[in-house]
Protein backbone atom coordinates (compact mmCIF):
# COMPACT_ATOMS: atom_id res chain seq x y z
CA UNK A 1 0.00 0.00 0.00
CA UNK A 2 1.30 3.50 -0.85
CA UNK A 3 2.63 5.53 2.07
CA UNK A 4 0.56 8.66 2.83
CA UNK A 5 1.51 11.43 5.21
CA UNK A 6 3.16 14.79 5.73
CA UNK A 7 5.05 15.84 2.63
CA UNK A 8 6.02 19.30 3.89
CA UNK A 9 5.41 21.42 6.98
CA UNK A 10 5.89 25.14 7.57
CA UNK A 11 5.18 27.44 10.50
CA UNK A 12 4.29 31.13 10.81
CA UNK A 13 3.65 33.35 13.79
CA UNK A 14 3.10 37.02 14.56
CA UNK A 15 4.75 40.43 14.37
CA UNK A 16 4.91 40.90 18.14
CA UNK A 17 6.16 38.95 21.13
CA UNK A 18 5.80 39.33 24.89
CA UNK A 19 8.67 38.06 27.02
CA UNK A 20 7.34 36.24 30.07
CA UNK A 21 10.08 37.87 32.18
CA UNK A 22 8.44 41.21 31.34
CA UNK A 23 5.00 39.84 32.26
CA UNK A 24 6.42 38.39 35.51
CA UNK A 25 7.74 41.82 36.49
CA UNK A 26 4.26 43.26 35.98
CA UNK A 27 2.38 40.47 37.78
CA UNK A 28 4.93 40.11 40.60
CA UNK A 29 5.13 36.37 39.90
CA UNK A 30 8.53 34.63 40.19
CA UNK A 31 9.73 34.37 36.55
CA UNK A 32 10.82 30.78 37.32
CA UNK A 33 7.14 29.88 37.57
CA UNK A 34 6.71 30.71 33.89
CA UNK A 35 10.07 29.41 32.63
CA UNK A 36 10.27 26.23 34.72
CA UNK A 37 6.79 25.77 36.19
CA UNK A 38 5.05 26.19 32.82
CA UNK A 39 8.08 25.72 30.55
CA UNK A 40 7.40 28.88 28.55
CA UNK A 41 9.71 31.79 27.67
CA UNK A 42 7.58 34.08 25.48
CA UNK A 43 4.30 34.24 23.61
CA UNK A 44 3.44 35.60 20.18
CA UNK A 45 0.97 38.47 19.94
CA UNK A 46 -0.76 39.44 16.66
CA UNK A 47 -0.54 43.00 15.38
CA UNK A 48 -3.89 44.67 14.55
CA UNK A 49 -3.42 43.67 10.89
CA UNK A 50 -2.72 39.99 11.64
CA UNK A 51 -5.10 37.12 12.36
CA UNK A 52 -5.56 33.39 11.70
CA UNK A 53 -5.95 34.06 7.95
CA UNK A 54 -2.73 36.08 7.56
CA UNK A 55 -0.69 33.60 9.65
CA UNK A 56 -2.15 30.59 7.84
CA UNK A 57 -1.64 32.14 4.39
CA UNK A 58 1.96 33.11 5.24
CA UNK A 59 2.81 29.56 6.36
CA UNK A 60 1.12 28.08 3.28
CA UNK A 61 2.83 30.50 0.88
CA UNK A 62 6.29 29.53 2.12
CA UNK A 63 5.36 25.85 1.81
CA UNK A 64 3.82 26.12 -1.67
CA UNK A 65 6.84 28.06 -2.93
CA UNK A 66 8.78 24.84 -2.31
CA UNK A 67 6.22 22.26 -3.39
CA UNK A 68 4.07 24.03 -5.99
CA UNK A 69 0.30 23.62 -6.11
CA UNK A 70 0.11 20.63 -8.44
CA UNK A 71 -2.60 18.21 -7.31
CA UNK A 72 -3.97 20.48 -4.58
CA UNK A 73 -7.78 20.17 -4.82
CA UNK A 74 -8.61 20.45 -1.11
CA UNK A 75 -7.77 23.08 1.51
CA UNK A 76 -8.83 22.25 5.06
CA UNK A 77 -8.49 25.05 7.62
CA UNK A 78 -8.47 23.93 11.25
CA UNK A 79 -9.05 26.58 13.89
CA UNK A 80 -10.85 27.32 17.12
CA UNK A 81 -10.46 31.08 16.78
CA UNK A 82 -12.65 31.42 13.69
CA UNK A 83 -13.32 34.87 12.25
CA UNK A 84 -16.81 34.12 10.97
CA UNK A 85 -19.57 31.76 12.06
CA UNK A 86 -20.37 30.81 8.44
CA UNK A 87 -17.51 31.44 6.03
CA UNK A 88 -14.40 29.29 6.29
CA UNK A 89 -11.20 31.25 6.95
CA UNK A 90 -9.66 29.07 4.25
CA UNK A 91 -11.74 30.83 1.58
CA UNK A 92 -9.73 34.01 2.20
CA UNK A 93 -6.51 31.98 2.11
CA UNK A 94 -7.60 30.36 -1.17
CA UNK A 95 -7.86 33.83 -2.71
CA UNK A 96 -4.64 35.17 -1.15
CA UNK A 97 -2.67 32.20 -2.47
CA UNK A 98 -4.20 32.50 -5.94
CA UNK A 99 -5.42 28.89 -5.91
CA UNK A 100 -7.70 27.85 -8.80
CA UNK A 101 -11.50 27.58 -8.34
CA UNK A 102 -11.26 23.78 -8.54
CA UNK A 103 -10.39 23.47 -4.84
CA UNK A 104 -12.79 22.45 -2.08
CA UNK A 105 -12.37 24.57 1.04
CA UNK A 106 -13.77 23.93 4.52
CA UNK A 107 -13.13 24.77 8.16
CA UNK A 108 -12.80 22.11 10.84
CA UNK A 109 -13.32 22.78 14.54
CA UNK A 110 -12.78 20.81 17.72
CA UNK A 111 -10.51 22.90 19.93
CA UNK A 112 -6.83 22.00 19.50
CA UNK A 113 -7.69 18.62 17.94
CA UNK A 114 -9.05 20.13 14.68
CA UNK A 115 -5.81 19.89 12.69
CA UNK A 116 -5.51 16.18 13.39
CA UNK A 117 -9.09 15.64 12.19
CA UNK A 118 -8.16 17.60 9.04
CA UNK A 119 -5.04 15.48 8.49
CA UNK A 120 -7.01 12.24 8.86
CA UNK A 121 -9.60 13.54 6.36
CA UNK A 122 -6.72 14.47 4.05
CA UNK A 123 -5.22 10.98 4.33
CA UNK A 124 -8.61 9.55 3.30
CA UNK A 125 -8.83 11.83 0.26
CA UNK A 126 -5.30 10.95 -0.86
CA UNK A 127 -5.97 7.26 -0.36
CA UNK A 128 -8.85 7.55 -2.83
CA UNK A 129 -7.01 9.89 -5.23
CA UNK A 130 -3.27 9.24 -4.83
CA UNK A 131 -2.43 11.95 -7.38
CA UNK A 132 -4.11 14.62 -5.23
CA UNK A 133 -2.49 16.55 -2.40
CA UNK A 134 -4.35 18.24 0.46
CA UNK A 135 -3.30 21.51 2.03
CA UNK A 136 -4.10 21.52 5.74
CA UNK A 137 -3.75 24.81 7.61
CA UNK A 138 -3.91 24.99 11.40
CA UNK A 139 -4.00 28.54 12.69
CA UNK A 140 -5.02 30.00 16.03
CA UNK A 141 -4.77 32.90 18.43
CA UNK A 142 -4.94 31.66 22.04
CA UNK A 143 -6.47 34.35 24.26
CA UNK A 144 -7.32 34.20 27.94
CA UNK A 145 -8.53 37.00 30.19
CA UNK A 146 -5.88 39.46 31.43
CA UNK A 147 -4.62 38.64 34.94
CA UNK A 148 -6.03 35.08 34.77
CA UNK A 149 -3.94 31.92 35.35
CA UNK A 150 -4.21 31.19 31.62
CA UNK A 151 -2.63 34.54 30.63
CA UNK A 152 0.99 33.28 30.46
CA UNK A 153 -0.14 30.34 28.29
CA UNK A 154 -1.48 32.52 25.47
CA UNK A 155 0.15 32.52 22.04
CA UNK A 156 -0.48 32.55 18.30
CA UNK A 157 0.77 30.66 15.31
CA UNK A 158 0.00 28.63 12.22
CA UNK A 159 1.19 25.41 10.64
CA UNK A 160 0.75 24.60 6.96
CA UNK A 161 0.89 20.87 6.26
CA UNK A 162 0.84 19.28 2.81
CA UNK A 163 -0.56 15.74 2.89
CA UNK A 164 0.35 13.52 -0.05
CA UNK A 165 1.19 10.02 -1.20
CA UNK A 166 4.86 9.07 -0.93
CA UNK A 167 5.47 11.93 1.55
CA UNK A 168 8.93 13.38 2.09
CA UNK A 169 8.71 13.95 5.86
CA UNK A 170 6.45 11.59 7.84
CA UNK A 171 4.40 8.57 6.76
CA UNK A 172 1.25 8.43 8.90
CA UNK A 173 0.48 4.87 9.95
CA UNK A 174 -3.01 3.42 9.70
CA UNK A 175 -3.62 2.48 13.34
CA UNK A 176 -4.73 5.26 15.65
CA UNK A 177 -6.26 5.50 19.09
CA UNK A 178 -9.28 7.67 19.88
CA UNK A 179 -10.81 9.05 23.06
CA UNK A 180 -13.75 11.47 23.21
CA UNK A 181 -15.74 12.63 26.23
CA UNK A 182 -18.02 15.60 26.97
CA UNK A 183 -16.06 17.55 29.60
CA UNK A 184 -16.24 21.23 30.61
CA UNK A 185 -12.50 21.83 30.89
CA UNK A 186 -12.16 24.65 28.34
CA UNK A 187 -14.54 26.30 25.88
CA UNK A 188 -15.24 29.65 24.24
CA UNK A 189 -18.86 30.84 23.91
CA UNK A 190 -19.78 32.42 20.56
CA UNK A 191 -19.87 35.93 22.03
CA UNK A 192 -16.51 35.76 23.81
CA UNK A 193 -13.02 36.37 22.41
CA UNK A 194 -11.40 34.71 25.43
CA UNK A 195 -11.68 31.09 26.55
CA UNK A 196 -13.30 29.92 29.77
CA UNK A 197 -11.08 27.35 31.41
CA UNK A 198 -10.95 25.16 34.48
CA UNK A 199 -7.16 24.81 34.52
CA UNK A 200 -6.80 21.88 36.91
CA UNK A 201 -9.63 19.94 35.24
CA UNK A 202 -8.10 20.63 31.82
CA UNK A 203 -4.81 19.04 32.91
CA UNK A 204 -6.44 15.91 34.32
CA UNK A 205 -8.83 15.65 31.34
CA UNK A 206 -5.83 15.87 28.97
CA UNK A 207 -3.90 13.16 30.83
CA UNK A 208 -6.89 10.82 31.15
CA UNK A 209 -7.70 11.28 27.46
CA UNK A 210 -4.09 10.46 26.60
CA UNK A 211 -4.09 7.12 28.39
CA UNK A 212 -7.54 6.39 26.97
CA UNK A 213 -6.34 7.12 23.42
CA UNK A 214 -3.18 5.10 24.03
CA UNK A 215 -5.18 2.05 25.13
CA UNK A 216 -7.34 2.39 22.02
CA UNK A 217 -4.23 2.61 19.83
CA UNK A 218 -2.93 -0.63 21.35
CA UNK A 219 -6.36 -2.27 20.93
CA UNK A 220 -6.34 -1.30 17.24
CA UNK A 221 -3.00 -2.86 16.38
CA UNK A 222 -0.75 0.14 17.05
CA UNK A 223 2.90 -0.39 17.89
CA UNK A 224 4.19 -1.38 21.28
CA UNK A 225 5.58 1.52 23.34
CA UNK A 226 9.07 0.08 22.83
CA UNK A 227 8.66 0.50 19.05
CA UNK A 228 8.09 4.26 19.36
CA UNK A 229 11.31 6.28 19.23
CA UNK A 230 10.04 9.81 19.91
CA UNK A 231 6.84 11.16 21.40
CA UNK A 232 5.41 14.54 20.49
CA UNK A 233 2.44 15.97 22.39
CA UNK A 234 -0.01 18.80 22.06
CA UNK A 235 1.75 21.54 24.05
CA UNK A 236 -0.54 24.21 25.54
CA UNK A 237 2.64 24.98 27.51
CA UNK A 238 5.68 22.76 27.29
CA UNK A 239 5.53 21.48 30.90
CA UNK A 240 2.34 19.69 29.79
CA UNK A 241 4.44 17.44 27.52
CA UNK A 242 6.59 16.53 30.54
CA UNK A 243 3.49 15.64 32.53
CA UNK A 244 2.17 13.61 29.58
CA UNK A 245 5.40 11.68 29.09
CA UNK A 246 5.62 10.89 32.82
CA UNK A 247 1.99 9.66 32.82
CA UNK A 248 2.54 7.54 29.71
CA UNK A 249 5.63 5.98 31.28
CA UNK A 250 3.64 5.15 34.40
CA UNK A 251 0.76 3.78 32.31
CA UNK A 252 2.87 1.57 30.05
CA UNK A 253 5.72 0.73 32.41
CA UNK A 254 8.25 2.04 29.86
CA UNK A 255 11.27 4.10 30.88
CA UNK A 256 10.65 7.16 28.77
CA UNK A 257 12.48 9.74 30.91
CA UNK A 258 12.52 13.15 29.26
CA UNK A 259 13.78 11.88 25.90
CA UNK A 260 12.94 14.21 23.02
CA UNK A 261 11.02 16.72 25.13
CA UNK A 262 13.54 19.56 24.80
CA UNK A 263 13.89 19.10 21.03
CA UNK A 264 10.10 19.06 20.60
CA UNK A 265 9.66 22.22 22.65
CA UNK A 266 12.10 24.66 21.01
CA UNK A 267 9.47 26.53 18.97
CA UNK A 268 6.56 26.03 21.40
CA UNK A 269 8.45 27.63 24.32
CA UNK A 270 8.56 30.82 22.24
CA UNK A 271 5.24 30.80 20.32
CA UNK A 272 3.05 29.95 23.32
CA UNK A 273 -0.10 27.95 22.79
CA UNK A 274 -1.09 27.98 19.13
CA UNK A 275 -4.01 25.59 19.78
CA UNK A 276 -4.51 23.56 16.55
CA UNK A 277 -0.97 24.33 15.38
CA UNK A 278 0.73 23.40 18.67
CA UNK A 279 1.23 19.67 18.05
CA UNK A 280 2.53 20.36 14.55
CA UNK A 281 4.87 23.11 15.80
CA UNK A 282 6.16 20.35 18.10
CA UNK A 283 6.57 17.97 15.15
CA UNK A 284 8.50 20.66 13.22
CA UNK A 285 10.59 21.37 16.31
CA UNK A 286 11.58 17.73 16.73
CA UNK A 287 12.35 17.24 13.02
CA UNK A 288 14.39 20.47 12.93
CA UNK A 289 16.39 19.83 16.13
CA UNK A 290 16.93 16.11 16.33
CA UNK A 291 19.17 14.72 13.60
CA UNK A 292 19.09 10.99 12.94
CA UNK A 293 15.32 10.51 13.11
CA UNK A 294 15.02 9.11 9.57
CA UNK A 295 13.42 5.68 9.74
CA UNK A 296 12.37 6.22 13.36
CA UNK A 297 8.79 6.11 14.60
CA UNK A 298 7.06 9.13 16.14
CA UNK A 299 4.08 8.86 18.48
CA UNK A 300 1.85 11.93 18.24
CA UNK A 301 -0.74 12.84 20.86
CA UNK A 302 -3.40 15.34 19.81
CA UNK A 303 -5.76 16.75 22.45
CA UNK A 304 -8.63 19.17 21.97
CA UNK A 305 -10.48 20.31 25.07
CA UNK A 306 -14.08 19.48 25.36
CA UNK A 307 -12.76 16.83 24.52
CA UNK A 308 -11.56 14.80 21.55
CA UNK A 309 -8.14 13.24 21.34
CA UNK A 310 -6.16 10.90 19.14
CA UNK A 311 -2.88 9.04 19.44
CA UNK A 312 -1.29 8.37 16.08
CA UNK A 313 2.07 7.23 14.86
CA UNK A 314 4.25 8.09 11.90
CA UNK A 315 7.57 7.00 10.46
CA UNK A 316 10.11 9.70 9.59
CA UNK A 317 11.07 9.67 5.90
CA UNK A 318 14.38 10.62 4.26
CA UNK A 319 13.22 14.16 3.34
CA UNK A 320 13.43 15.10 7.01
CA UNK A 321 17.22 14.70 6.92
CA UNK A 322 17.62 18.08 5.23
CA UNK A 323 15.76 20.07 7.88
CA UNK A 324 17.46 22.49 10.22
CA UNK A 325 16.45 25.16 12.73
CA UNK A 326 14.47 27.10 10.14
CA UNK A 327 11.99 28.92 12.38
CA UNK A 328 14.14 30.48 15.11
CA UNK A 329 15.16 33.40 12.89
CA UNK A 330 11.47 34.28 12.34
CA UNK A 331 10.84 34.11 16.08
CA UNK A 332 13.90 36.29 16.75
CA UNK A 333 12.58 38.88 14.29
CA UNK A 334 9.36 39.51 16.26
CA UNK A 335 9.06 42.96 17.81
CA UNK A 336 8.96 42.89 21.64
CA UNK A 337 6.06 44.57 23.44
CA UNK A 338 6.02 46.19 26.84
CA UNK A 339 3.13 45.25 29.13
CA UNK A 340 1.15 48.43 28.45
CA UNK A 341 1.28 47.91 24.66
CA UNK A 342 0.43 44.21 25.05
CA UNK A 343 -2.58 44.97 27.25
CA UNK A 344 -3.79 47.59 24.78
CA UNK A 345 -3.58 45.07 21.92
CA UNK A 346 -5.34 42.46 24.05
CA UNK A 347 -8.22 44.83 24.69
CA UNK A 348 -8.71 45.67 21.00
CA UNK A 349 -11.73 44.01 19.45
CA UNK A 350 -12.93 45.19 16.07
CA UNK A 351 -16.72 45.40 15.89
CA UNK A 352 -17.74 43.58 12.72
CA UNK A 353 -20.52 46.00 11.74
CA UNK A 354 -18.34 49.05 11.12
CA UNK A 355 -16.04 50.19 8.35
CA UNK A 356 -12.51 50.26 9.72
CA UNK A 357 -9.00 50.26 8.32
CA UNK A 358 -6.26 48.59 10.32
CA UNK A 359 -2.88 50.30 10.76
CA UNK A 360 -0.02 48.90 8.66
CA UNK A 361 2.18 46.98 11.10
CA UNK A 362 2.92 43.44 9.97
CA UNK A 363 5.85 42.64 7.72
CA UNK A 364 4.41 39.22 6.84
CA UNK A 365 3.40 38.54 3.21
CA UNK A 366 -0.31 39.12 3.93
CA UNK A 367 -2.24 41.57 6.07
CA UNK A 368 -5.74 42.01 7.39
CA UNK A 369 -6.67 45.39 5.90
CA UNK A 370 -9.87 45.95 7.88
CA UNK A 371 -13.63 45.68 7.55
CA UNK A 372 -15.75 47.20 4.80
CA UNK A 373 -19.51 46.69 4.53
CA UNK A 374 -19.14 44.30 7.51
CA UNK A 375 -16.88 42.00 5.51
CA UNK A 376 -13.21 41.33 6.15
CA UNK A 377 -10.57 42.51 3.65
CA UNK A 378 -7.14 41.03 3.20
CA UNK A 379 -4.27 42.03 0.98
CA UNK A 380 -0.83 40.96 -0.07
CA UNK A 381 1.73 43.41 1.26
P1 LIG B 1 -1.55 28.07 37.73
O1 LIG B 1 -2.63 28.49 38.62
O2 LIG B 1 -0.53 29.07 37.36
O3 LIG B 1 -0.87 26.71 38.25
O4 LIG B 1 -2.21 27.55 36.40
P2 LIG B 1 0.13 26.37 39.41
O5 LIG B 1 0.09 27.39 40.49
O6 LIG B 1 -0.19 24.96 39.70
O7 LIG B 1 1.60 26.48 38.76
C1 LIG B 1 1.94 25.85 37.56
C2 LIG B 1 3.28 25.09 37.77
O8 LIG B 1 4.31 26.03 38.12
C3 LIG B 1 3.24 24.08 38.92
O9 LIG B 1 4.00 22.95 38.50
C4 LIG B 1 3.98 24.78 40.05
O10 LIG B 1 4.59 23.92 40.98
C5 LIG B 1 5.03 25.54 39.25
P3 LIG B 1 3.29 21.49 38.28
O11 LIG B 1 2.65 21.16 39.57
O12 LIG B 1 2.22 21.74 37.20
O13 LIG B 1 4.36 20.62 37.81
N1 LIG B 1 5.60 26.69 39.96
C6 LIG B 1 6.93 26.99 39.95
N2 LIG B 1 7.97 26.40 39.37
C7 LIG B 1 9.21 26.97 39.54
N3 LIG B 1 9.39 28.10 40.27
C8 LIG B 1 8.37 28.72 40.87
C9 LIG B 1 7.06 28.16 40.74
N4 LIG B 1 5.83 28.53 41.19
C10 LIG B 1 4.96 27.61 40.71
N5 LIG B 1 8.57 29.83 41.59
C11 LIG B 1 -2.51 26.43 34.33
C12 LIG B 1 -1.54 26.75 35.43
C13 LIG B 1 -1.82 25.61 33.26
C14 LIG B 1 -3.67 25.63 34.90
C15 LIG B 1 -3.01 27.77 33.74
O14 LIG B 1 -1.96 28.45 33.13
C16 LIG B 1 -4.14 27.60 32.74
O15 LIG B 1 -5.31 27.53 33.12
N6 LIG B 1 -3.82 27.53 31.40
C17 LIG B 1 -4.81 27.33 30.36
C18 LIG B 1 -5.33 25.91 30.31
C19 LIG B 1 -4.29 24.91 29.84
O16 LIG B 1 -3.31 25.26 29.21
N7 LIG B 1 -4.56 23.61 30.10
C20 LIG B 1 -3.69 22.54 29.66
C21 LIG B 1 -4.42 21.24 29.38
S1 LIG B 1 -5.87 21.48 28.34
C22 LIG B 1 -5.25 21.66 26.72
O17 LIG B 1 -4.11 21.38 26.47
C23 LIG B 1 -6.19 22.21 25.69
C24 LIG B 1 -5.97 23.66 25.32
O18 LIG B 1 -4.83 23.78 24.50
C25 LIG B 1 -7.20 24.21 24.60
C26 LIG B 1 -7.80 23.46 23.44
O19 LIG B 1 -7.77 22.26 23.31
O20 LIG B 1 -8.44 24.14 22.66
C27 LIG B 1 -5.75 24.55 26.52
From TrEMBL:
Belongs to the thiolase-like superfamily. HMG-CoA synthase family. Keywords: Acyltransferase, Transferase. Residues 4-166 form the Hydroxymethylglutaryl-coenzyme A synthase N-terminal domain. Pfam families: HMG_CoA_synt_C, HMG_CoA_synt_N. One of its GO terms (molecular function) is hydroxymethylglutaryl-CoA synthase activity. It comes from Leucobacter allii. This is Hydroxymethylglutaryl-CoA synthase. Residues 176-248, 266-320 form the Hydroxymethylglutaryl-coenzyme A synthase C-terminal domain. Its EC number is 2.3.3.10. It is an enzyme of class 2 (transferase).
Amino acid sequence: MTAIGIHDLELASTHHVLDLGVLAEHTGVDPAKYRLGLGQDEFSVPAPDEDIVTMGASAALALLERTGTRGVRTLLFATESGIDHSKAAGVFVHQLLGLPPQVRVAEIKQACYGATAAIQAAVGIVQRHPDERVLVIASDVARYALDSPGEPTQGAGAAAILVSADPALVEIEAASGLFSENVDDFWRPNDSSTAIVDGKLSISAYLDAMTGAWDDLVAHGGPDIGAIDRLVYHQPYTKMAKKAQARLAEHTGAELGEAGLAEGAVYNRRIGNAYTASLYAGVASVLDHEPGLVGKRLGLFSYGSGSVSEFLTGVVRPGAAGRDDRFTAALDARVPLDVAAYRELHAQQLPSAVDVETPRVTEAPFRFAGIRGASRRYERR
